[in-house]
Amino acid sequence: MKFEGSMVAIVTPFVGGHLDEEAFRELIEWHIASGTDVIVPCGTTGESATLSHEEHDRVIELTVELVNRRVPVLAGTGSNSTAEAIRLTKHAKEAGADGALLITPYYNKPTQQGLYEHYKAIAEAVEFPMVLYNVPGRTGLNMLPETVARLSKIDVIVGIKEATGSLRQASEIIALCDDSFAVISGDDFINFPLLAVGGKGMISVTANVIPGDLAALYDAWKAGDVAKARDLHYKTLPLHTAMFYETNPIPVKTALHKLGKIELEFRLPLCPLSEANDKKLETALKSYGLLEN
Fold first, then answer.
1. Catalytic annotation on 133?
2. Is residue 236 part of a domain?
3. Which one of 7, 27, 223, 240 has the fewest beta carbons within 10 angstroms of its own beta carbon?
4. Catalytic annotation, pick one of 93, 116, 119, 161
5. What phi and psi values does residue 30 have, to the nearest 5 degrees?
């Protein structure tokens, strides 16, 4: 299974403290109609850290059911507990997802050897396509290119969502790994530059709001229309900035609410956007043409 193109790190909409299944269905239909290539539930943007195990399982099951094989589903199943990551990954496979996205263990800060052993144990426990996920700004830990290269030799480990924001690190990974190993942008600011150095796509926050333009950027690149892809990179750049006015997914869920897609509801400890940033976000959405002036 290949994971490439414009992949959305989809939000988890809530209503009254529970998963809003109807809003989630409408989001998935919108993404597929807009050209999104892969749906990625239960990631950082999906507030996986505050989903109960039952909710986590339900979001993945519902995603698989709603997508109905029209595009791949890459389910977030990572944990700072190897045993828990194995359980979540087994469930994703049983639910019918196409692969698992596994964040590096957070807080307990394993060594590079510990990271290798963690992913190796999951790969041995579950025969299932797996994409590594490196985001030091969230986890306090950077998985080094040499560790990624070691892990890329395990058959079921097929790629990495690289969210250091460093083109140098991403380039080193690409140089060390076989071309069949997918290096995927996990930072919207470098979606286009990463494609230029050999990346296979992006797992995007901003695609929640502008799925069509992010899909068009990747499609233009794939078709060899570098100028169009570059133009879309610069067009989308201000919106990438807006999606990080405060901690993700606060701005993106606020934007989706303003667009009439979801209720405005977070799980504590996430809270609503500040008034000043709310105004800035609204201005950014109007400037992009998503809201009327």
1. yes
2. no
3. 223
4. 161
5. -60, -45
Q: What is the CATH number of the domain that holds 204?
A: 3.20.20.70
The active-site residue out of 116, 119, 133, 245 is 133
Q: Report how far apart, in Å, the C-alpha atoms of 24 and of each of 5, 47, 88 are.
A: 21, 14, 21
| Tally of domains in the chain | 1
266 lies in some domain: no
- Residue 276 confidence (pLDDT): 98
Q: What is the pLDDT of residues 97-109, one digit of tens each?
A: 999 999 999 999 9
Mark whether 106 is an active-site residue: no
Structure tokens at 84: 């828990």
Measured N-to-C along each axis, helices 112-125 and 82-95 cross at an angle, to the nearest 10 degrees, of 40
Of the candidates 6, 34, 32, 40, the residue with the CA atom closest to the CA atom of residue 199: 6
Q: What is the pLDDT of residues 13-60, one digit of tens each?
A: 999 999 999 999 999 999 999 999 999 999 999 999 999 999 999 999
The domain containing residue 20 runs over which residues?
5-225
Within-domain flag for 230: no
With 0.90 as the threshold, say if the pTM is over it.
yes
